[in-house]
Amino acid sequence: MSLSLKERFNYNFYLWLFGLTKVRMINFVSPRIVDIDDTKAVINVPLNIKTRNHVKSMYIGSMVVGVDLVVGFSAYLQTKKKNRKIVVIFKDLKADFIKRAEGDTLFSCNSLKQINDAISKAIDTGERVNLPVPVTATVPSVFGDEPVAEFVITLSVKEK
Description:
Elements lengths: L4 H17 L2 H6 L2 E5 L4 E5 L14 H23 L3 E12 L7 E5 L2 H14 L3 E10 L1 H4 L3 E13 L1
């Protein structure tokens, strides 16, 4: 299922507003939600003067923002569906940089079902639940579907 223009606009507007009021680094890298449904989420971080490093590839900090957002926004949407106050944080991050990200980079997470299950478990038990979530970064304009980096970020959720 692909997002309608209205849904994409609404999600990106919320992302911009969250970046404006809570985490300024989000707006600095100018991410855009490309697609999101019940199983996957994809966010684009453009390669530009703000996100590239001295060798004209994406700076590691910009890439981590992409990883954070693709998982964090997915978790946020799951908590909104349940209409519960859930605290979402990240516990750790593992990264494997395979190639230089020399173009606009897509961050893909295919674990939305597992994220939803972790949030349900946190609600049911009242305990903090940790979930390692894999994220793949690709640069379609240069490498097609071949990954340029692979990450595992541990999502930690608990009901307030």
